[in-house]
Amino acid sequence: MVPVIAGTYYPATPGYTNGSPLNANYGYATPLVVDVEHTFTGIGVNIAAAGVGGAPVMRMAVYNDNGSGYPGSLVQDCGTVDVTGTGGKEVTGLTIKLSPGLYWLVCSPQGATTTQPTPRIANSTIPPFGDLVPQGGNPNTVYTSSSVASFPTGSPMAPTFPAGAVLDNNAYTALLA
């Protein structure tokens, strides 16, 4: 078992690189394996390029796994962070108690009218998820919802992650602390 260290962000990867601007109101789900019960107190994202126009925010949430290596029901909608600037953005003061298992960290850009924000992405395997990728593909694979209606601006996260999400080999990573 891997111990959880308070104040450390998970999933931990050896490094990040700049990604591409995200699609507005899409949900980007990154896997997180929890080995021991832990109460997380924050969620965040690292922004490489700011959202422009309107009121750009990143909504973040935690979803259960549906038992098939795919995001399922909502555990907690963690709210939004302003992404009009770059760097680490976080929501703190949360209480997210997770038992051992597979979960999904979801981020959804909302509110930018000109340019969507670009988060940093994992540039290596998200441990220990590699062998759990159901398609046998890139261990950085994340699910990207293809339905904008599921994550509309100003609305809470969908109670169930939408079916039919497509695979994306860039791990747009929301992180739990």
Total number of helices: 0
Helix-strand string: EEEEEEEEEEEE
Biggest pleated-sheet summary: 6 strands, antiparallel
**Average pLDDT, all residues:** 76
Strand residue content = over 45%
Helix content: under 10%
Provide the structure class. Answer: mainly beta
Number of E-type strands: 12
Identify the overall geometry: globular
Q: Rounded to an integer, what's the Rg over CA atoms?
A: 15 Å
Low-confidence stretches: 124-141
Distance between the termini: 18 Å
Topology diagram in text:
Elements: E1 16-18, E2 28-34, E3 38-49, E4 52-65, E5 71-82, E6 87-98, E7 101-115, E8 118-122, E9 142-144, E10 166-168, E11 171-172, E12 174-176
Antiparallel strand pairs: 1-8, 2-7, 2-9, 3-6, 3-8, 3-12, 4-5, 4-7, 8-11, 9-10
List keywords for this structure.
177 residues; 6-stranded antiparallel sheet; mainly beta
Characterization of this structure:
The protein has strands at 16-18, 28-34, 38-49, 52-65, 71-82, 87-98, 101-115, 118-122, 142-144, 166-168, 171-172, 174-176. The chain is mainly β. The chain is globular, with a radius of gyration of 15 Å. The relative contact order is 0.33.
